[in-house]
Amino acid sequence: MASLIKSQIGYKETLKRAYQNFRKSPKDRLAKVSYIKTKLELLESDWKTVTNNHNRILENFDSTIEEEYLNVYEELEDTYLNYKLSLLDVLPNSDNVMDNPCMNNQSCKGESNLRLPKISIPVFSGNYSDWQTFKDLFESLIHNNTS
Q1: Structural contact between residues 122 and 137, judged by C-beta atoms closer than 8 angstroms
Q2: Are 10 and 53 in contact, with CB atoms under 8 Å apart?
Q3: Using one digit for the tens of pLDDT, what is the confidence trace for 92-122?
Q4: % pLDDT > 90, the chain
Q5: Full 3-state SS string of the chain
Q6: What is the rounded average pLDDT for all residues in the chain?
Q7: How many Å apart are CA 135 and CA 143, to the nearest integer?
Q8: Domain that holds residue 22
Q9: 6-46 per-position pLDDT tens digit
Q10: Which are the contacts of 87, defined by CB distance < 8 A and separation ≥ 6?
Q11: What is the pTM of this model?
Q12: The total number of structural domains that make up the chain
C-alpha cells in the first residue's frame, strides 16, 4: 500500500513538472499537432496507471491514510485535467482531432482539404415505397463516406 501511495506522489510530481514544461513550450512547438498529440498520448498513459493505482488503493483503504492520500489524488486529478485541457486548447479543431483518422496515423491517401458544396439530403417522408431510395442516397452520401 505504501509503495502505491509513493507511486501516486511520484506521478503527481511528474505531471506537475510536465504541465509546467508544456506551458513554457515555444510557440513553434505548440503549433505542431504531432507534438501535442504525443503529449496527450503520454498523459493518457500516465493517467491510466494513476487510475489503476487509485483503484487498488481504494480496495485496501486504511482510514489512517485517508486524508493525506485523498489530498494527493485530488491534486493529481486537478493537474491532469488542467494539463489535458491546455493540450486540447492548442490543437486546431480540438473537438475533432482525436476522431480524425489522419490525426490517428491512419492512411489518408486520396483525401484532400477541398471544400465541397453542402449536400442537402431530403427528409424521409415515412412512405415505405420511398425508403429504399432514401436509404441508398443516405448511405452513399453520408454513411459510407469515410472523409
Answers
A1: yes
A2: no
A3: 754 444 444 454 444 454 455 556 666 666 7
A4: 5
A5: CHHHHHHHHHHHHHHHHHHHHHHCCCHHHHCCHHHHHHHHHHHHHHHHHHHHHHHHHHHCCCCCCHHHHHHHHHHHHHHHHHHHHHHHHHCCCHHHHCCCCCCCCCCCCCCCCCCCCCCCCCCCCCCHHHHHHHHHHHHHHHHCCCC
A6: 77
A7: 10
A8: 1-90
A9: 888 888 898 999 889 888 888 888 888 888 889 899 999 98
A10: 22, 36, 39, 40, 43
A11: 0.58
A12: 1
Distance, CA of 62 to CA of 4 (rounded, Å): 13
The sign of the torsion formed by the CA atoms of 42, 43, 46, 47 equals negative
Domain annotation covers residue 61 = yes
Residue 103 covered by a domain: no
Give which of 87, 65, 75, 69 is closest to 19, Cα–Cα. 87
pLDDT number for residue 116: 63
Euclidean distance between CA atoms 34 and 15, whole angstroms: 20
